[in-house]
Amino acid sequence: MEHLKSEIDSAQKARDDLMKWKLVVVAVIGAAALGLTDRMSAPNAQLALAIIPFACAYIDLLCRNLSLRSKLVSAFLAQEAALQANGPSERFEAFYQEFQRTWGGRSLETFALVWSTVLLSVAIIPVGIAVSTQTPGDPAAWALFQWPNLLFYVSGLAGVVIGVLIQRAYSWRSGLIRAQAQANYQRIAAPTK
Question: pTM here?
Answer without folding.
Answer: 0.80
